[in-house]
Protein 1
Amino acid sequence: MSIVIDSNLAYLQSRLNLSAEKLELYQGKSIEEVIEAEAAAGNQLAIQLAEELLTNVNLLIEIFKLADPNNKFIILMNMNYQQLREFLPLMEHEDLVQGLMFFSQDKLLSMLEHIPSEQLVKTVLEMFSEEEVIQLMPENQLDKILTSHELDKDKVLENLKSIPPEYLAQILETALGKEVETKNSVEMVNQINNLNPLEYKDALTSLQPTQKQQLTLALTKENPELYQLFDARAYTKMINTYKQKPELVKAMNVIETEEIIKMLHELPNDLLSIVITQLDTEIFAEQLMDKHPELIADIIAG
């Protein structure tokens, strides 16, 4: 592990009270070599500095220029997968989300299909209005909602009253296999209510697409949890057709941090290291001291 220390020689000169001659002598040397040489020569400042590097966060940041993401990256690239993962919960949510840009759109959509349904819905509704979701949703998905056992039948019947009577007559005739005598909406809705389960299902699924969308939208507005009944694959196909990766990643900001971290676990070590370079420098240094003092020793050794 090697962090170039040329920019730190001035600090070492000041901290260890080095002469110009010694400074020239130490050109190209590692931090450890400089400190060890000075300590061996009886420089008490060097002995003190060696001890502080393992306990003083600000000193660690200063001497290794940890505010520079490149220096963080050099350190991180010497860590294993498990060590890198320990940094992710320390990061800001927005920085974690930006790390998703390293994935392809196909990969992001695949991962979206495996997050909790309520978080997927929140992500979708960041990109599409409720009306757009229903309009773009395949008809078989609307049928899935309208025939779900989780749907309140009374709510369905109430909203059917807003469907034009000619369409109610049409679905009743489809279900019953004969012409409907009445054209009164209330009476027809009562007849739909009295259909057996199979006939009832046939009646709802035979609605014209526009009317089916109207009914589904009314029901989802009353009960937004119904959006979770749509297949995840239907949502990701919609996203893939109409949105680009930057829009998708921006929308994924609503996903819980824990789920974002799970996604980032799938990045290779080099890309994961780049993501972690965005971690607050002081927190980064504290994590090194608390969890990886051996790495600090390796850095000092050069």
Protein 2
Amino acid sequence: MRAAVKVAEAIERLRPRVPPGIRLEEDDLGHLLAFVRRDMLHLDADALSDRLAAWTRDRLAKELPRAQATISFRHARPVDPHDESTMDIQEGWLGLEPSVWIEGPQVSEAEVAALARVLPDFLKLLEGRGRPSGFRRYDEGNAE
């Protein structure tokens, strides 16, 4: 077995091992991307962003150091595109993409195996609620 494969080949090897609902693709920058699409309220998305950041720091840093877990807005749109966003109203977003990605253009066989191992826990994070204890206050950061 080779030590590293191109992202497209890694996706084909990973596909049979991915939990239902997770999509795989090579993004515009050549990264291996595993993601789901979700419609969420912005404060729930912000809390998920914190859970994913903490998970990246605590779990991915050990098992998959080149990986990051984030929320992408690449295809997202507001529920009501004609309303102005305000801080006191819980705005909705359609098509947010919670994602785990590994920088390309190649990934190792070990990274493919590690990604397959962590994806079930990634899905569990999406079903969680709130922020990690002590991670940061809801009114701090750049997602509000």
